[in-house]
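Supplementary Methods. Inverse-folding protocol.

Structures were first reduced to a discrete structure-token string of length 93. This string, shown here, constituted the complete conditioning input.
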């Protein structure tokens, strides 16, 4: 979404802002919208996750224990196969 603008604001102010945006955009029509106070609430939630919680439930072990190792292996595989980036890096001109 290249035209997306992110504005950081305190949650109560942001919730008020989305209500104003919704009212100005949709008025009294009952249309679905991403501009809701619930959206602001969801963006501000803190949901810590225990990485080991799911593996025990499923009875499996991850092949790579961290996402950092997964990214490194993916990049190694990508380079080993001779893949090239689809967009030329203009900074090197």
């Amino acid at each position: 979404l290249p035209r997306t603008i992110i504005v950081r604001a305190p949650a109560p102010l942001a919730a008020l802002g989305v209500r104003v945006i919704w009212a100005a955009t949709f008025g009294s029509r009952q249309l679905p919208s991403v501009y809701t106070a619930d959206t602001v609430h969801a963006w501000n939630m803190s949901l810590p996750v225990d990485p080991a919680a799911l593996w025990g439930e499923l009875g499996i072990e991850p092949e790579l224990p961290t996402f950092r190792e997964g990214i490194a292996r993916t990049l190694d595989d990508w380079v080993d196969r001779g893949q090239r980036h689809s967009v030329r890096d203009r900074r090197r001109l």
